[in-house]
Every structure is written in C-alpha cells, then in structure tokens.
Amino acid sequence: MAKKHILIVPGDGIGQEVTEVGKKVLEKIAAKFGHDFTYDEALIGHVAIEATGDPLPAETLEKMKASDAVLFGAVGHPKYDNDPSAKVRPEQGLLKMRKELGLYANLRPIKLFDELLSASSIKPEILKGADILFFRELTGDIYFGEKGRKNNGDTAYDVAEYSRYEVERIGRKAFEAARTRKKHLVSVDKANVLESSRLWREEIQKLALEYPDVTVEYQFVDATAMLLIKDPKRFDVVVTANLFGDILTDEASQIAGSMGMLASASIGDGTGVYEPIHGSAHDITGKGLANPMASVLSAALLLDISFGMKAESEVVINAVDQVLKKGFRTGDIADATTDKSMILGTDAIGEEILKLI
Ligand code: NAD
Ligand code: IPM
Ligand code: MN
C-alpha cells in the first residue's frame, strides 16, 4: 500500500470534463490495489483568471509543489483566442507552471491501439505497428525567449534560444529511453537555417558518442512532418525542440486516430504533471462529447512514472484497450463502420473503462 497526494487541475473547457474521468480512474485503482490516494483541486487558466485575475495563482503553484503528482486538463478560452491584444491569457498559466516546476521533458507516446486502425485517415497497412515516443523539450525555445514589439509596435519578435545544458538534459532522457526500446533515435531540428538548431545538433552528436548502441538519425523538421505520415513505423524515439514538438505531436495524433487518445507526461526535477496533448476544445465543450481516454492514459502515465506503479498503469491501459475491443467509441474515433449505438459520451465511456478496472 502506498500513500500519495494527487493534485487535480482540470482547467478550462473539456479539461473539466475529461479530468473528472481521469480522477475516477485513479480512485478505482487505489481501491483495487489498496493504495491511499488523497486529492486536492486547484485553478489554472481562464477559470483562474475569472476567480483571481491570475492564470496561475500562487496557491495553485504551492499545491503543485506540495503534491506527489498533478493530473492536468487543459487551458484556453475563445475570448482570448480571438483577442490578440489581451495581456493576461490562460496559456500563460500553463507555461509558467512548466517553467516553475522545471518540467523540461514532455513525453508524448504515440501508440496505436489495433482496434483504431480504421479510425485514422492514414491507410491501415501504413499504420499497423506504429509506436513512437516523442521527447518534446518543454521549457525553452521560442516559447520562452525574449519577445516584444518594436518600430512603434509595427514589428513583433520572439527569440528562439537554447543553451547546451538544455539540449543535453532532454537529449540524455531520449537516448536513455531509446536504449530500452528499439535503440533508434531521430533528432529533429532545422539546422540548415537556425543557429539554435545547429547548437541542438552539436549537442546530440556529442551525446551520441556516449550511446554507441543507439542509432541516431538527424532530420529537418519539414522532412519529419512528411515522413510521419508516409511511414510512421520508421520512427521509434524522437527528440525535438519545444515548438517543433508541439506541432509534430498534433500531427502524429492522427497516427493514433485522434487527439483524444494522446496522453503526455511532463517531467523534470520535481512534481510530474500528466496531461492530454489536446486543448480545451471549445467547439465541443459542455456537450459531453469529449473523448476522456487521453486523460485516462495520462493517469496511467502518472501511476507508472511518478509512482512506479507499473502493474496499476497496465490495468488502466488494458481497460482502455478492452473498451475499444468491445466496440465502444466516442465520436472522434468512430468511423463509417461503427454501430451508432456504440458511440458514447464522455461519462458513459468513462463508466465502461471503470467497469474493467
Ligand atoms: P484543441 O486540442 O482544443 O482542439 C482541436 C480539435 O480537436 C477540435 O476540433 C476538438 O474538438 C478536437 N478534440 C480535442 N480534444 C478532443 C477530445 N478529447 N475528444 C474529442 N475531440 C477532441 O485545439 P484548438 O482548438 O487549437 O485550441 C482550443 C484552445 O485550447 C485554445 O485556447 C488553445 O490555446 C488551447 N490549448 C490548450 C492546450 C493545453 O492546455 N495543453 C493544448 C492545446 C490547445
Ligand atoms: C500544448 C499546447 C500549449 C503549447 C499551448 C496551449 C501553450 O498547445 O500543451 O501542446 O503550445 O505547449
Ligand atoms: Mn499543442
């Protein structure tokens, strides 16, 4: 029996809906395995701005630091998306959380459940067996460099910046992971153009000398975007910068069938944060349509990575697999062959997952 304290941070939009299912899964696991999990909840994003004026209130950050792990939902609201001049924005809360908690490594596994082969718009024979682990650097790059306006506000800039140290620590994590998998690492950059990418490549080349058992391939990000769709099976572990990783993993979500299937783990020096890669999805908010599997699979990553509970984590992944095998779907992963009566909403498919834990 283990005693753990988990902070639930649902955030905005469908973040609220899917995180509720993720939390129920953790509760069911605790009951099944006799663990003592305690929970607290905190605000981030638009809901935090509404309540306190701050997208990441000090109280939330303190609670995060004091917990054993965080299950996070999403942030974002159309009010800000459509108002580029807004000074206080939900996404600032997410970025500050990543920086303050030192969450420099964002692991985004792209795992295709066989039952979803036909849910993707990519041909099944191209997809079958695809299994990629992305390491997206999360606290550097153009996201955190200097930004501003000049020329009386008529010119805007965002500086992309990396230090050797930042590249080395994410690179090392990716090499270590490649060692436990197919020993193949693709490092993605734009070293033919960007100075920060040239430093990135230098550091990965240096690390490669320490990992002679891992085959390293260097790709330019534009080629990677193409190869992910052409031949996803050629990838094992991928390591890349913050912005490239953001874009490539949304693209890669189509290998797994939907954004609603993609979980992630943000780790660093302290508390780990586990979150779907998708956003607050205003187009479906409040309709009970969101696929909660990304949150459920994020809970599985939390159990495995932060708590070392491999068996518990596998029970969760297996429950998702079984629900898919039984034919249950949410709208985003349904296709022309899906029996309409098997298309369920967020809570109903959550209940089916819980039954199998
Ligand atoms: P999004 O990920 O919210 O949605 C993209 C599309 O995917 C939408 O059509 C949506 O309905 C669908 N989708 C996403 N998750 C789904 C799920 N679980 N089940 C079914 N369908 C799902 O991206 P967006 O529309 O570009 O952004 C909306 C807001 O979310 C913005 O404010 C953005 O800043 C924010 N955002 C936040 C995060 C985060 O908190 N980590 C990530 C991405 C976007
Ligand atoms: C993500 C999101 C965030 C990012 C935004 C909302 C700041 O797209 O978590 O992937 O770009 O990192
Ligand atoms: Mn993103």
Automatic annotation (TrEMBL):
One cellular component (GO) term of this entry: cytosol
CC cofactor note: Binds 1 Mg(2+) or Mn(2+) ion per subunit.
Binding site for Mg(2+): D222, D246, D250
Keywords: Amino-acid biosynthesis, Branched-chain amino acid biosynthesis, Cytoplasm, Leucine biosynthesis, Magnesium, Manganese, Metal-binding, NAD, Oxidoreductase
Associated pathway: Amino-acid biosynthesis; L-leucine biosynthesis; L-leucine from 3-methyl-2-oxobutanoate: step 3/4
E.C. designation(s): 1.1.1.85
Alphabetized GO MF terms: 3-isopropylmalate dehydrogenase activity; magnesium ion binding; NAD binding
CC cofactor: Mn(2+); Mg(2+)
Quaternary structure note: Homodimer.
Descriptive protein name: 3-isopropylmalate dehydrogenase
Species, as recorded: Aquirufa antheringensis
Gene: leuB
